[in-house]
Amino acid sequence: MNHKLRWLFFAIVIRPLMIVILGTNLKHPERIPGDGPAIIVANHNSHLDVFALMHVLGLSRLKKVRPVAAADYFLSRPLRSWFARKIVGIIPIDRNQVGRSPDGRHPLQDISDSLANDEIVLLFPEGTRGEPELLKELQTGVAHLARRHPEVPIIPVFMRGLGKALPKGEAILVPFLCDIVFGSPLPSGLSKRDFMCQLNDSIDSLSAELGGGQWD
After folding, report:
1. What pLDDT is stored for residue 132 in this prediction?
2. Which of 31, 36, 96, 192 could anchor a disulfide with 143, C-beta 3.0 to 4.6 Å?
3. Nearest of 95, 102, 192 to residue 148 by alpha carbon
């Protein structure tokens, strides 16, 4: 990862985009983790989601922020792979891997390594971008992370508007106000089922705080 280029990209491109073009409205900034390790779990409707989260975390935390992203998509082309690794700083995950790799490595080990390095991991448990402003079923990988790292706070986040500004399949950004609301850390030590219930309830509660995920 090139930290200098990364800082310049977010300072010169992303920060003005989020403030001037999209008018980002942040609720409960006091719930943003001061440092890592931490896991931020958010809904996912647009490529802008990761940039919006990294923007509100601030330039001072940028070195420690690592988004989890699909290796089959982001590493599929040389330029896209370079940008994803060197500028965005993704942790690439093989979505098709079931169980340990042939060399015995756990599929979540790269995320665990990042947390051990006191980094803030961004995770989108829907697995892929959904339809604008519609929440898909959350996958349970985050519950496994919660069990592997009960000491790490997991903070739910709900974002609204980014799926309208740059929906899946579109290349031209449309100016659209966006909202980001941070929740409180989820309880630790829960079973997978109870954790997923808590996560879904928290996301629903944050969505309701913004008046729901959609506009009339």
Report:
1. 67
2. 192
3. 192
In angstroms, the Cα distances linking 20 to 9, 24, 61, 177 are 16, 8, 21, 10
What does the chain come to in residues?
216
Phi then psi dihedrals of residue 173, to 5 deg? -80, 135
Q: Supply 178's token pair.
A: 């966006």
Exposure letters 134-173 (e unless 16+ CB within 10 A, then b)? ebeebbebbbbbbeebeebbbbbbbbbbbbbbbbeeeeee
pLDDT averaged per 10 residues in sequence order, the chain, 216 residues: 92 93 93 95 92 95 95 92 95 81 84 97 86 80 94 96 82 84 94 95 93 57
Tokens of 2: 């090139």
CA distance 79 to 60: 27
